[in-house]
Amino acid sequence: MRGTDGEAVDVVVVGAGAAGLACSADLLAAGLRVRLLEAGDAVGGRMRTDRIAGFTLDRGFQVFNTAYPQVKRRLELRALRLRPFIAGVLVHTADGTRRFTDPTRRRGKGGPLPVEGVSARDLAALGVLSARDMLAPASWLRRRGADTTTATALAAAGLSADLVEGLLRPFLSGVFLEDELETSARFFHLVWRSMLRGTLCLPADGIGAVPAQLAARLPDGVLRTGARVASLTPDGVALAEGGGLPARAVVVATGQSAAGDLLPGLDVPRGRTVTTLYHAAPRSPLAEPTLLVDARRRFLNTCVLTEVHRGYSGDGRALVSTSVLGAPGPAEVADVEAALGEAYGADVTTWEAVHRVTVPDALPAMPPPLVLSRTTRVAPGRYVCGDHRATGSLQGALASGARAAREVLADLERGTG
Q1: pTM here?
Q2: Any residues with CB less than 8 A from the CB of 131 and at least 6 apart, and which?
Q3: What is the pLDDT of residue 104?
Q4: Exposed, middle or buried by CB within 10 Å (0-12, 13-18, 19+), for 360?
Q5: pLDDT of residue 416
Q6: What pLDDT was estimated at residue 117?
Q7: CA distances from 401 to 12, 97, 161, 385 (A)
Q8: pLDDT, tens digit, for every residue of 312-325?
Q9: What's the pLDDT score for residue 300?
Q10: In contact, 281 and 271? CB cutoff 8 Å
């Protein structure tokens, strides 16, 4: 089939987020002719970084986990100039701030204890859970037992309500973007494993550096930005600007809502919405690159990004990132700012609101029983991939893109694509 520029096209991939970039790379490596169409002005999907008023601001707070298998396979980590967080979390409570650090990581002489205020019984139960998740094969974690909610799994592991409410629920709310711990226990165990085995960090140029690196490896002429697909046609896609692009197969690699629009009848999970507030402070309210969460769950998490990398601020002020569920109104934002003042022990009236970004469908809802990887086949010659077809993570998006490429290749070889 021939595209609008006369070049023969085997596959059109719609959407240049992580899944679409991975799918396109694998199809190209197999020798197919691919066109990758992105509606926006740059690649990345939800993994975008903006430069606003001299600050480097991701579109929603995100972290990069070095333990993901797809990350190790596809990315040159050194080139990302990764800046790590401390392997732990601070929890603000009514009785003060408690520190929890990963006991498997090295800490300086005289450094903080791994946990503060946790019973010996909880320490033992958490140690057993962590050792199993860290050392067991990932394939075993995916298959073991009937899937339950994370809340049920934590209770079954012997963890007390005090530990769950005082640490795990506040922390995991920011991971799952929901605070009821209703997310699949299978996903929890895989995420816990990846946190124990990897390092949470951020690229020096922001999270957008990750898809930018993937896109830079594509041959010239494959990627086209500013190309919105209006609909799928019997022989390819129709473009919103007019005209069309025929192809033997089409892979929809957009976010879940856009995928549902392009593929009517597609089973699309509920999305989780998150809002990130960025503030500039005259001085750093926390002199370390550590996540701070709130036991009262007035916000999901907060951190001083300039403690992770000073280059995120162009004027020397501290850059504070805070995420909350949903899309808060002005009164709710004021309450969050008051909570930040309490948690940091800082005068937030001296802070400047720099930017706010709300991300609908930031993650797919993942209740049990969760299918960790679903086929990308929708109809003959039609495929869909993304984290909403796997797990809500960069690993899930990349793996789903890889699966789409495998299924497209298999079908085209059999003549069924």
Answers
A1: 0.95
A2: none
A3: 66
A4: middle
A5: 76
A6: 73
A7: 13, 41, 39, 6
A8: 999 999 999 999 99
A9: 98
A10: no
Residue 144 pLDDT: 86
Q: Is the pLDDT of residue 8 over 90?
A: no
Cβ contact 223:16 at 8 Å:
yes
Burial class (CB in 10 A: 0-12, 13-18, 19+), 256: buried
385-399 CB burial, b ≥16 within 10 A, e <16? bbbbbbbbbbbbbbb
Instruction: Render pLDDT for 198-255 as a digit per residue (tens, 0 to 9).
Output: 999 999 999 999 999 999 999 999 999 999 999 999 999 999 999 999 999 999 999 9
Residue 364's closest CA among 386, 349, 347? 386
pLDDT tier for residue 145 given thresholds of 50, 70 and 90: confident
